[in-house]
Design brief:
With 312 residues, the protein is α/β, with parallel strands linked by helices. Helix content is 40%, strand content 24%. The longest helix has 21 residues. The structure holds guanosine-5'-triphosphate (GTP) and magnesium ion.
Length: 312
């Protein structure tokens, strides 16, 4: 099951950096050494076992961009599932960036009218914190206007914080074929455990692919923060030749468990009872494993309306 994802935007806007962090285990600092991408760099990323993301990282230098719109037009813009357009928030050539973006949309409209469009307003770390919202809101409304008749979803991102994980989690969520089935199953599991929250992370990227929330929480950015923190920790472990397996964190308010779940996921369970014995939760996680492994194997073969059976 291959899904073509186009990554486009002006040279230096940060496309290869984000791809390398999410899919190739780079840390943000390493991206300073990346050279400009020549033409298109293709990578096939296996995601959740069956799903293969066919990433087209399109070098953004002008000569290459012109080529995409002319001689390579059909090849580049055909069969696209997702277009991710990256804007450098500090760019001084806003009109020029917009012109390229709109040319891209035209080509998408002709060749892949069903494609979903995401715009990332990137390098937000370079903007003082108190100005970020105002600048982002202005860019977002301008982009939405200029994208018509297509719809675009915008995110503010930076490789230096968790915002990158929020954007990419949302993007891949859209590409998982039976994500609703997975979500209902997770919600059944959370109810049985009487958990506050259960999250499912893709194993290699640590992106959140599904979650069930049974108790509201004030921090709306907590999922991507966890992705970012645990991924960094996982990379530190691998530098020491150790494999990250599981983690348990407790305080006076909750107990949380992260554990390897299926061949392609980690699970995180948050319980309100800070004194709950570890063994009880770990046994429950172990018992649910088979069920979720089966869903993973069925991924992509289930009808869109399939409803998961209740499990005990
Ligand atoms: N401050 C800041 N710098 C970033 C961010 N993302 C990427 N960069 C830097 O931007 C520079 C260019 O990044 P690349 O990822 O190579 O840019 P690109 O879009 O792939 O460029 P082309 O391949 O030429 O199209 C690198 O030095 C990165 O370290 C970010 O979020 N914040
Ligand atoms: Mg590049």
């Amino acid at each position: 099951m291959k899904k073509k994802v186009l990554l486009m935007g002006k040279s230096g806007s940060g496309k290869t950096s984000m791809r390398s962090i999410i899919f190739a285990n780079y840390i943000a600092r390493d991206t300073r050494r990346l050279g400009a991408t020549i033409d298109v760099e293709h990578s096939h990323v296996r995601f959740l076992g069956n799903l293969v993301l066919n990433l087209w990282d399109c070098g953004g230098q002008e000569a290459f961009m012109e080529n995409y719109f002319t001689s390579q037009r059909d090849n580049v813009f055909r069969n696209v599932e997702v277009l991710i357009y990256v804007f450098d928030v500090e760019s001084r050539e806003v009109e020029r960036d917009m012109h390229y973006y709109q040319s891209c949309l035209e080509a998408i409209l002709q060749n892949s009218p069903e494609a979903k469009v995401f715009c990332l307003i990137h390098k937000m770390d370079l903007i003082p914190e108190d100005q970020r919202s105002v600048i982002y809101d202005k860019r977002e409304s301008e982009l939405k206007k200029r994208s018509l008749p297509l719809d675009c979803t915008c995110f503010k991102t930076s490789i230096w914080d968790e915002t990158l994980y929020k954007a990419w989690s949302n993007i891949v969520h859209l590409l998982i074929p039976n994500v609703h089935y997975l979500e209902s199953s997770l919600s059944n599991f959370a109810t049985i455990l009487d958990a506050d929250e259960v999250l499912l992370f893709e194993r290699a990227t640590f992106l959140v692919i599904a979650h069930s929330v049974r108790r509201p929480h004030a921090d709306v950015h907590r999922f991507e923060k966890i992705s970012n923190i645990v991924k960094q920790f996982k990379l530190s472990c691998s530098k020491l030749q150790a494999q990250f397996q599981s983690m348990e964190v407790r305080n006076s308010c909750f107990a949380s468990f992260i554990d390897i779940f299926t061949p392609n996921t980690y699970v995180m369970v948050i319980m309100s009872d800070p004194d709950i014995p570890s063994a009880a939760t770990l046994v429950n996680i172990r018992n649910a494993r088979k069920y979720f492994e089966k869903i993973e194997r069925l991924e992509g073969t289930l009808p869109a309306t399939a409803v998961p059976p209740k499990f005990q």
